[in-house]
Amino acid sequence: MIATINDLMDKIRQLEAELDAEVAQRRIDLHVGMEKGRIFFEQEILRRHRELRTRLSTYILNARPLVVLTAPVIYALIVPFVLLDIFVTIYQAICFPVYGIPKVRRADYLVFDRHHLAYLNALEIINCAYCSYGNGVIAYVREIAGRTEKHWCPIKHARRVIGAHPRYAEFVDYGDADAYRKLSAQMQNPNKPAD
Question: What is the pTM of this model?
Answer without folding.
Answer: 0.81
